[in-house]
Amino acid sequence: MTETENRFTTRTWMFLILPVVLLLALVVLFLNTNPIRIAGGDLPPVEEINIQRITLPDHGRIVLQVVNGGPDPVTIAQVLVDDAYWQFKVEPENTLDPLQSGQVVIYYPWVEGEAHEIVLISNTGATFDAAVELAVQTPSRGLDQLLSYALVGVYVGIIPVGLGMLWFPAMRQFSRRLMNFVLALTIGLMLFLVVDTFLEMVEVAERLPGVFQGTALGIFAALLTWLAITAVGNRDKYADRATPSGRAFIAFVIALGIGFHNLGEGLAVGAAFALGEAALGSFLVVGFILHNLTEGIGIVAPVLRDQPKYGWFALMLLLAGGPAIIGTLIGGFAYSPVLTVIFLGVGVGAIWQVIIEVGRLVMDSAKRREENPVTWLNVLGLLLGIVVMYLTAFLVNV
Amino acid sequence: MKLSRRDLLKLGGAGFLGLPLAKVIREVLIGEGDPSSPHDMGDGNPDAHLSFGPVGQVDHERNGFDPHTILSDYDFGTTSDLPDGRTLREYEFYAMDKEIEIAPGVFFPGWVYGSLTSPASQRSGRLVGQVPGPTIRCVEGDRIRIKFTNTSPHPHTIHFHGIHSAKMDGVPLQGDGLIHQGQSTYYEFDAYPFGCHLYHCHALPLARHIHKGLYGGFIVDPDPERYAGEEAAIARTRNHNYPENEQYQEMFMLMNAFDTNFDKENEVYAVNTVTFAYHHQPIDLDRSKRQRIYLVNVTEFDPINSMHLHANFFDYYDHGTTLTPTLRTIDTVSQIQAQRGILEFSFEGFEDGLYMFHAHQSEFAELGWMGNFRLGGE
Lengths: 398, 378
Prior knowledge:
The structure holds 2 protein chains of 2 kinds. In chain A, 60% of the residues lie in helices and 13% in strands.
């Protein structure tokens, strides 16, 4: 080590700087001579407009949130609605620079409950399509609307998770084998959730402009979350999973992971309600209650042998169910695909860590008695967890 | 279990690293700006039901041609007398690449024709490429000689809808066939039969070469000396060399459309190229004259196009090759691609006001093929 430091001379500095200087020189040379022009020639600009969100604030307007996702500026020259030219304006201006977002306001008398097709035409004649699947006025930001969206969040998140946690006293009476069955069931639930959350993340990521590299963004958010939880989990006071605080940490991570998953669900539900796509309405909400019921079991499964306080249950409930409320509000009023990808990525990371942690609980329990952890009962629990989630998901596909 | 505040920060901080937090706060608190705010609903916004049509104006000067002048711009060529007494009309046509503004702010990479003797070129003192190409106007029996030069990188031809020999047909592998960049050829034939015709490029792929803009009108006036009685009288009104032609307000209208994103569907429909041109600026009609429209359809990708006249009816001469109407007292006529005809009507005794005309495919109308006639204008 010291030897290396001694060698850090002027010469070393020069060699550190040399590649940087050469790089700059080459960039300048390249930009000035453009040796690959033979490959490009006088090509038309690459135009890409991503339509992020469509809202119908009143009966005379359709509003599009757009982002220029391409490498060149794009000028929105005309707008077609249902194969007809309509008056519009673009804020801040018709020409959007790369990555600049804007708002296209179209003065169009849309028809309640019907579909409309929108085409943006650029000055080079390129077209960008958007569709209003079912025209419904977008809720304005009144207190009533906020409360009703929050209520949907309560039904989707808080109520099912809370109901699931109510099984805690009964589950405490379970034998060790049955407790392991519940833990295996939790792993099954989480396996379903990690796949479901990941797929949802990829789906949203594909709607992002290419430069955001949506899928990679979500995966890195997942990786970072997983590492952070692992780092926190390795602190002395939680490190031993055989202690109550160690098990409580696992429950906390489960609640966190479920929280982010429910945030994603809330976003989807909120956005669907706002865009008029959630035609199923109350049926959808009932579906979510059934779908998320088992999540409460998952949270309390690791602490069945302990004596958590009521306050702790309330905290876990808030952590796991509360984000659904935040989700429906953001989804309904300020949906952002970039944020959604990051939230869902965080959810994937947290849930993945949950699978590892709960898996370790089952393994440790078996190891202490020198048993094989893969018992028929455990496998059955795992399968049951996946099947329950899969089947109840039929009710909630937005 | 106890989580220290630091642990929570660590967890949260890691997950939110790189998050545009300010954006979340802004969007949740302020929202997406004015349109979603409940306060300005409807206020200061135009009536959506009347907010129809494109935004802005097309710069006709930059295009070098104006749909309003195309209505009555006829290219008579350079005339001289042949030894047998007939008229020789000589033209110099060019094909070139030219970007044209077809809707306000929407530019189309066109392939276009221009002629040295076209009114557009004569007015500006230089060769002007235009869509539709210059409207050739001649008389039945004239000898037509067109020198065609291709200045564009793609091979082109001129194929006339008329009567001529195979090598003058302007198709690949016949006569001089495809005319490549820098090459020239001559198309020579007698103008027959009289009527409202067209010409277009016949290089392959045909759909691309036509819809890019290589087409124009070819009007052959009847020669009254070949007809007798009532027919001769009608022929005189159709022939631009006779004073009786002045009793008519004549307009050349070519129905075209543009597929701006090359998906085989048109985004822009028009008469004489510029979308809504006669909607924004109506055509003033002279009530003291009868109206005659030379209507040509070159619309690519759609099987038919049509024209409907509001509040009036017209007589129709299919292909213009007869001196008596082929359809009488109709207000809508449809044409397949390359079909054309002459419409004759009168607004004598009508009230002042705007009288619409448009394609009666609503989609075409709303995508630009819509216009107004004006009585008592200014």
